[in-house]
Write a structure and sequence with these properties.
Blueprint (H helix, E strand, L loop, with lengths): L3 E7 L13 E6 L2 E5 L5 H8 L8 E3 L5 H4 L2 H10 L7 E5 L3 H8 L11 E5 L3 E5 L4 E6 L7 E6 L3 E4 L1 H6 L5 H9 L1 E2 L2 E2 L4 E4 L3 E5 L6 H7 L4 E5 L7 H7 L4 H11 L3 E5 L9 H9 L5 E4 L5 E3 L5
Parallel strand pairs: 3-4, 4-5, 5-6, 14-15, 15-16, 16-17
Antiparallel strand pairs: 1-2, 1-18, 2-3, 7-8, 8-9, 9-14, 10-13, 11-12
Helix pairs in contact: 3-4, 9-10
C-alpha cells in the first residue's frame, strides 16, 4: 500500500526547546523516504517516530546553519551502521561542500554505504524518477539556501461512464490503457488527465521569487514562519518569513494544505501563528506543526 505523508521530527528554529527539537522532516512518498534538514537530535527523533535509516533514499539540506544540518553526521553514520542496502543521495548547496565534508567525516566510522553527493548550484531539476521530479529553487538568506519541490508526473483517470458508453469492460480496459487504442476507441475518448501531486519544502528565507515558484499549486507546502507579523522587521533582517507572509504565499499559490514550522522560541503560543495565517485570508487546510506530527498528503483532486 502506498503512503504519502510528512513525518515532522523537529520544529524549532536556532535552538531546541523543552518541547521542540531542532528541524527534521521526512517525506514518505510511496516506497521512498526523503529527509529534509536533519538538525541536531534527528537520529533520536527518527527513533521516536518509528523512522529507520532503511527508510531513507534522499537527504535534502536547504543550507548549512546548524539547526538544519548538525544532525547530518549522526544520520549518515547510522545509514552506514545499519548497512542500508539501497542507494542514498544527498543534495545540498554546493557552496557548503566543506561543511558537508566535515559533517560526513566528523568522527571515525566504517563506511559501508556509498552515499552519493549531489551538490546544488542552480535552479532546476535535481532528479527525475518514474514517481517524481525533484527540483530546487534558490532562496534569500544570509548563507546560500535552496528550497525543494517534488512534482509527480500527470497521469490518466479512466472514466467509467465513457468506458460503458463505448462498450469497453473487463480486461479490455487494461489493454486500452497499455496500447492507447482498442478497435476504434482511443484512450483520450474514455479518460481525463489526473494531475500529479506537488510538495514543496521552504526553509530559511525572505520573500523572493524562489518562494513563490516552489509553492505554486502545491498540495502540501511546508514553510518556515519563524516570526509573527509584529516582528516583520526582524524577519527581514535575519532572512526569515512571518506567519502572515508564509500564509499569503500559500493563499496566492493555491496551496491546499499549509504546514507552518520553524518557530522562534520567543513565542509561547503557537496558535497565534494559525490566527495570523487566517487573518491574511488563507482558507485551505492549515497545520501549525509540532514534533512527531504526521501530516498526510491530501488526496488527489
Amino acid at each position: 500500500m502506498s503512503v504519502r505523508e510528512l513525518v515532522v521530527l523537529g520544529t524549532a528554529s536556532q535552538v531546541p526547546t523543552r518541547h521542540r527539537n531542532h528541524n527534521g522532516y521526512l517525506l514518505r512518498w510511496d516506497g521512498e523516504g526523503i529527509l529534509f534538514d536533519p538538525g541536531e537530535g534527528t537520529q533520536r527523533q527518527m527513533l521516536r517516530a518509528g523512522v529507520a535509516a532503511h527508510d531513507l533514499n534522499r537527504i535534502c539540506v536547504t543550507h548549512f546553519h546548524g539547526d538544519h544540518s548538525l544532525g547530518l553526521a549522526g544520520v549518515l553514520q547510522r545509514i552506514n551502521l545499519d548497512r542500508v542496502p539501497h542507494p542514498v543521495t544527498a543534495h545540498f548547496p554546493g557552496s557548503g561542500q566543506r561543511f558537508f565534508d566535515r559533517l560526513r567525516y566528523a568522527t571515525a566510522y566504517r563506511e559501508t554505504v556509498g552515499v552519493t553527493e549531489a551538490p546544488v548550484d542552480a535552479d532546476g531539476d535535481l532528479a527525475v524518477t518514474p514517481a517524481y521530479t525533484l527540483q530546487a529553487r534558490k532562496l534569500s538568506h544570509p548563507v546560500e539556501s535552496y528550497g525543494y519541490r517534488l512534482v509527480e508526473p500527470d497521469g490518466l483517470r479512466m472514466l467509467p461512464d465513457r468506458l460503458a458508453a463505448h462498450g469497453v469492460k473487463g480486461p479490455d480496459v487494461g489493454r486500452l490503457q497499455r496500447e492507447g487504442v482498442l478497435g476504434d476507441v482511443t484512450l483520450d475518448q474514455v479518460s481525463e488527465v489526473r494531475r500529479g501531486q506537488r510538495f514543496a519544502f521552504v526553509m530559511d528565507t525572505r520573500l523572493c521569487d524562489g518562494v513563490h515558484a516552489l509553492a505554486e499549486d502545491c498540495d502540501l507546502l511546508v514553510i518556515e514562519s519563524t516570526f509573527l507579523d509584529e516582528d516583520a522587521a526582524l524577519a527581514a533582517e535575519h532572512g526569515h518569513l512571518t506567519a502572515g507572509q508564509a500564509a499569503a504565499v500559500a493563499r496566492d499559490a493555491g496551496v491546499r494544505h499549509l504546514v507552518l514550522t520553524h518557530f522562534s522560541q520567543r513565542y509561547p503560543d503557537p496558535e497565534e501563528f494559525a490566527r495570523q495565517a487566517r487573518d491574511v485570508g488563507y482558507a485551505g487546510e492549515l497545520t501549525v506543526a509540532y514534533d512527531l506530527l504526521r501530516v498526510p498528503v491530501p488526496k488527489r483532486r
